């Protein structure tokens, strides 16, 4: 007679507990976004790299444009404050002051500078690009010399912007 005292349609405490338990359990991940599955790790990494590549290409383009304007302040804004540059045929330059002094001397004799994209890798807020460079130098006698070689650039991300942290120009040796 106790079942009849509960009233018609009452499922009892066991049914309520089961309903709460079902509502508390997480749904499978593919069910949380209707019609979407969680992307694979490879796809997430590929999207990460493509996003970084876009930012780095913008920084590389800014650097090339600013090299050609001979305007030092915008050029130096492409480098991080603690940047290092190893110019073609030269020793390491540490910090923006040394880098600025190098470019102030080198820029007046430079023609167009082009950089190529070879390989790239990134982790967190740093990325490395291995590629090539090509430039034209005007010598004291007026002759133009074309120089090309390897270029290794390390970028660091600050906020949404990418800056050059290290740049190594590898000019071919005469042999």
What is the residue-averaged pLDDT? 81
Main sheet: strands, sense, barrel = 6 strands, mixed
Find the structural class using helix and strand composition. Answer: alpha+beta
- SSE succession: HHHHEEHEEEE
Question: How many β-strand stretches?
Answer: 6
Rg over CA atoms:
30 Å
Distance between the terminal alpha carbons, to the nearest Å? 106 Å
CATH class: Alpha Beta
The proportion of strand residues reads: 35-45%
CATH architecture: Roll
What key phrases describe this protein's structure?
35% helix; 35% strand; alpha+beta; Nuclear Transport Factor 2, Chain: A; 175 residues; 6-stranded mixed sheet; 5 helices
Write up what this structure looks like.
The chain has one domain (41-170): Nuclear Transport Factor 2, Chain: A. Helices cover 35% and strands 35% of the residues. The radius of gyration is 30 Å and the shape is elongated. The chain is built from five helices and six strands, in the order H-H-H-H-E-E-H-E-E-E-E. The N and C termini lie far apart (106 Å). The model has no long low-confidence stretch (mean pLDDT 81). With 175 residues, the chain is of the alpha+beta class.
